[in-house]
Amino acid sequence: MSVEDLLIHFIYDDDDEQRHIQQYSPSDEQRHLHKQYYLPGEEMNGVVSLHLRTGVRTRGLTIHFLGSATVSWEATNKKRVYQSSEIYLESSKPLLDIGLDRSVELPRGLHQFGFKYQLPTSLPSTFNGVYGQVTYIAKVKFECEDERNTTITSEPFMVLRRPELPAHVYQEKTLKKSRLFLGLTTGKVKMVATIDKSAAVPGDNIVVDAEVSNWTGKEISLIQASVLLESHYLAEGHEIIFRQYLSKRDDVYDVNTFRGRRWRHVLLPVPPFLPDSGLEHCQIMNIKYFFQFKVRVEGKEDIAMETPLYVGTHADLGGVAGKELLLGKMWQGIAELEEERDLPWYGRRSIYTESVNGDNFDPGH
C-alpha cells in the first residue's frame, strides 16, 4: 500500500484553523471549550491530508457530503420492523480535478487539500436516539490507477440548530405538589421547586431552589432534579416514544418523619451538544425536553412533577427588563412560596436540613 494515511480535519473557527497550522493538539478540557459543530447555513471549512509512503498515480481525489435520518424499531408483538428514512444532504466536489480518463503522479510525502462547502439552511440538528439518528458524514475517496492503492476514509461532523429563545422562557417557574399517605402515621409529603428559567442553553446551568417536607411515617430516601429527553419516532404510520435522563442531581440525604429538606441555589447542568427542541426540519422524529423534580418515599411510588424546557441560544435581552428576566427572583428565597404553617416545625424550632450549591449530594452525580 502506497497510502500511509488519509485524514479529514474540520475547521470550525479561526482558532481551530490556527491550531491546525501549528499542529497543536488540545486537551479534552480545552477541546470542550471550542466550537465543535456547524450551524445550518454556515460554510464548512477543512483540510484533507494525504500521506504517501511512495509515489503513486491517481485518477482523482473527491470529497462527498452526506446527511440523513433513519428510524427503526421492532414491534415484538407483531413480529415486524417499522422503518423510515430521510435524506438532507448528498453532494460531492473534486479536491484534485484531473479530468476524465486521465491520471497524474503524486510524489511521496504529505499532500494537503483545503475544502469549503456551503451547508443548506434547512438541515435538522445531529441527533443520536434509541430508535433513530440524524447523522452527517464527510467521505473522501482517493482513486488510484492501481486499485490496490485506492483508499476511502470518512469522518462524521455535527450540525446543531441554535434558535434564539423568547424572553418569556427566562422567567422563573414554580412547581408544587403534595401526596397523602395513609397508615399508622397518616400525613402528606409536600414539595415545591423553583427553576430560574425554562431556557435550557447547552453548556449552561439551571438554578434550582426547593423544599420538601415529610409529614408521613415513611422515610424519604432520594430527592432528585433532572433534565429529561422525550423522543418520538415515526415510521409507517406508527409511533414509539422513549424517555431518558440527560442530567441529574441526586440528594441522598434521608428525610425522616416530621423533617424537611431545603435546596438553595443548586446547579443542574445542561449538556453542551443538545439538538434544538422539536428537532426542526426532521419529519420522522420529534424531541421534547423537561425539568423533573422527584421524591422517593420508602415503599411507595415516586412523586414527580415536570415542566417543559426549551433548548436554544440566548436572545439579546438588553435593558432593565431583560436583566430582571435573567436574574429572576431567586435571591428572594423560596420560603416565600409556602406559608409558614406548611413547613415542618417542632415547637418554635425549624427541623429542616439544608443543601447550599449541592453540598452533601451523592458525589457520583
Q: What would you note in describing this structure?
A:
It is a single chain. With 365 residues, the chain is mainly β. Helix content is 6%, strand content 52%. It has 3 helices and 21 strands. It has helices at 14-21, 28-33, 319-327; strands at 3-10, 43-52, 56-75, 80-96, 104-106, 109-118, 127-128, 132-144, 151-156, 173-181, 187-195, 199-200, 205-214, 220-235, 238-251, 259-269, 285-297, 303-311, 345-346, 349-350, 352-356. Strands 3, 4, 5, 7, 8 and 9 form a 6-stranded antiparallel β-sheet that branches. A 5-stranded mixed β-sheet has the order 10-11-13-16-21, with no helix packed on it. Strand 17 and strand 18 (303-311) form a beta hairpin. The radius of gyration is 27 Å and the shape is elongated. The relative contact order is 0.16. Residues 24-33 and 319-350 have low confidence and may be disordered.
Top keywords for this entry?
elongated, 365 residues, single chain
Task: Write the SSE topology.
Blueprint: E1 3-10, H1 14-21, H2 28-33, E2 43-52, E3 56-75, E4 80-96, E5 104-106, E6 109-118, E7 127-128, E8 132-144, E9 151-156, E10 173-181, E11 187-195, E12 199-200, E13 205-214, E14 220-235, E15 238-251, E16 259-269, E17 285-297, E18 303-311, H3 319-327, E19 345-346, E20 349-350, E21 352-356
